[in-house]
Amino acid sequence: MRTKTRIAKSIFLTFVTIGIIALILAGCEVRIEGEMGDNLSAWNDGAAKQAIIEFVKEVTDKNNPNYVDPADRVATFDNDGTLWAEKPIYFQLYFLLQQVKDQAKNHPEWPEQQPFKAVLEDDRETMKTFQVSDLLNLALASHSGMTQEEFEATTRAFITTAKHPEKDVLFTELVYQPMLELLDYLRDNDFKVFIVSGGGIDFIRAFSEEVYSIPKEHVIGTAIQADFISEEGKSYLKRFPMIVPPIDDKEGKPVNLHRFIGRRPILAFGNSDGDIQMLQYAADGDGLSLCLLLHHDDAAREWAYDRNSSVGHLDKGLAEAKARGWTVVSMKNDFKKVFPSE
Amino acid sequence: MRTKTRIAKSIFLTFVTIGIIALILAGCEVRIEGEMGDNLSAWNDGAAKQAIIEFVKEVTDKNNPNYVDPADRVATFDNDGTLWAEKPIYFQLYFLLQQVKDQAKNHPEWPEQQPFKAVLEDDRETMKTFQVSDLLNLALASHSGMTQEEFEATTRAFITTAKHPEKDVLFTELVYQPMLELLDYLRDNDFKVFIVSGGGIDFIRAFSEEVYSIPKEHVIGTAIQADFISEEGKSYLKRFPMIVPPIDDKEGKPVNLHRFIGRRPILAFGNSDGDIQMLQYAADGDGLSLCLLLHHDDAAREWAYDRNSSVGHLDKGLAEAKARGWTVVSMKNDFKKVFPSE
């Protein structure tokens, strides 16, 4: 009898222990679920944060009619002005200007040729008159002629050392803390997060993994052509100065994102009129979607601009957001913190 | 004293229980590691299977000098003749011929125009003389003019109902069981697995998730252009008859795969001379790589062909494999089972 009691006690204690462990594990899960949205700590409580949490809750709840299979949980983000700052000019332009200067020795014709002449002479008055075609010429000329690996190394060197002209920090320090949290929050909820940028695809890939935890294959941008070359037992891709159509801006964004991803996003986040078509494409799919525009209205902590800005011009987007009920995120009111270092 | 003993016993039992649970969990891990390569059960033991297991072991072992970070574990697979059969003609061609017939009512000029005339009249003699340019004309004409969603629906309908002309099964039943296992095995070892096919990107995406568990965004192929159209509160992509250069074959494969993925593969698997450049690109990167060619030498269970075949032509590839030590996989000797239904 004594022995039986002991055995019974042992079994009882074993079950209690298992029970305690099970409770601890269950507790973990409850805690994780209870935290929903709590890791969006750089966001102020408000309509924008609420809309995000509500949307994620609906599409991830199997019992909700708006439930979306993880395979279809595609979220697309613009880069310049949405994930990091874009003032006074798109950060890639500094790289481009540097590249033109560095490569000038191989181009004796550039000092006499616009738009190169203005760049080499630092002629800001002329540079202010540059059209999109001038910038495209500069980009094509300075971003081609090398191998993919050489271009990546040059970009890495720039992005890890070059400083912003006004704020004395690396460009990569001007990413938005609330957006980093949002990317994590979406991934934690089994979203596939992509960048869809008008900027160069290979430029962004040089820092996307480190800065945004977005793998290179989830970066979509304007691409230039390359040739495959195999010689002397080595093979490489050599970049040549031609755009892969379309340029990844405006109507080009939905075209390119579908080419890369194969489905419509259910969440799209931009900040300028160049993002409207991407948001329309997300909004017009079947099922629930969330479209967001970041409004730069915080001159104290960042910059304030919309209708009258050439960089990040936002005008029609605000009207469309109002008409369609898209979420306008106010940097001033919705961002508790702007940059990670704050 | 009795009480203290009891408490001591309780604590002891608790620790024993925790120990047992820990052992069970540890046992699971040991079991999983012990299974390395065991889930390649449709492969015969031999040099090919051994090369795969050895390669995966090296690149996933942190203490091995050939260790590769998961972010860089990119594996690329050709589709036709590598993941599924391709005889007597590429399966997409049946779809294309069907599409031409279905769309003929909207093209009164086709019955008088080659290559359409031959397709509509089922004139096999003329069809045998088709050049690549003829097939491209047929593909561009029959795969454009509709929205992306309409094209996907048509493709889905075909792929889920159309039967192979010689074997009375769906085309998707002619995937290779050893390759399905290899895809799983690589993913289990944190590889990112991509298809890189000369075939149409949207055609393959219509079944890649279901058949290969490869998400649409991991499918790379020949793409055609599209326009973004927004009208009456709806927006969609309309396909138009122009290739996005380059065609995803031969030199085009490394160009396109890098455009989509942003890095070189460390493992590349093909079956024809159209895959050589993709394998070269993988082989010529830094670090360890594994290049494989499937050799169709099994007339009894599948088809036997190489140098004299127009479909899946393999000649230079065999020479290059010999010279570079690439792994030639013999369907006859290395595949224990060919198709899942066997």
Could you explain the architecture of this structure?
The structure is a homodimer of 342-residue chains. In chain A, the strands form 2 sheets. Chain A has a 6-stranded parallel beta sheet with strand order 3-2-1-6-7-8, with helices on both faces. Chain A has a two-stranded antiparallel ribbon with strand order 4-5. With 342 residues, chain A is of the alpha/beta class. Chain A has 14 helices and 8 strands. In chain A, a hairpin with a 2-residue loop joins strand 4 (224-231) and strand 5. The termini of chain A are far apart. In chain A, helix 3 crosses helix 6. Chain A is globular, with a radius of gyration of 25 Å. At the A-B interface, helix 1, helix 9, strand 4, strand 5 and helix 11 of A face helix 1, helix 9, strand 4, strand 5 and helix 11 of B.
Oligomer: homodimer
- The strands making up the biggest β-sheet of chain A line up spatially as 3-2-1-6-7-8
> What class do helices, strands and sheet pairing of chain A give?
alpha/beta
Low-confidence stretches of chain A: 26-35
Give the strand tally of chain A. 8
Structural topology:
2 copies of one chain form a homodimer.
Chain A: H1 2-34, H2 47-60, E1 74-77, H3 91-103, H4 116-120, H5 124-128, H6 132-142, H7 148-159, H8 177-188, E2 192-200, H9 201-205, H10 208-212, E3 219-222, E4 224-231, E5 234-243, H11 252-261, E6 267-270, H12 276-283, E7 290-295, H13 316-324, E8 327-330, H14 331-334
